[in-house]
Design goal:
Layout lengths: L2 E6 L8 H10 L7 E5 L2 H9 L4 E6 L1
Antiparallel strand pairs: 1-2, 1-3
Helix pairs in contact: 1-2
């Protein structure tokens, strides 16, 4: 499977509880933090819910 790198580029403040919980589940705490995940339907669904706060890149 492909890997993606997810970076938090906008602040979590002002987001509702569900969006903050999604960011926590992805492993993103502080601004500019990054994580790598395998591409799966579950991860892509979580990314879609908070895409306005993230930058997503494919890792080679």
């Amino acid at each position: 499977m492909a890997k993606i790198k997810i970076t938090l580029v906008k602040s979590r403040s002002g987001s509702d509880k569900r969006q903050i919980a999604t960011l926590n589940a992805l492993g993103l705490g502080k601004l500019s933090s990054s994580v790598e995940h395998e591409t799966s339907p579950q991860i892509m669904g979580m990314v879609a819910k908070v895409k306005h706060l993230l930058r997503v890149e494919e890792v080679k």
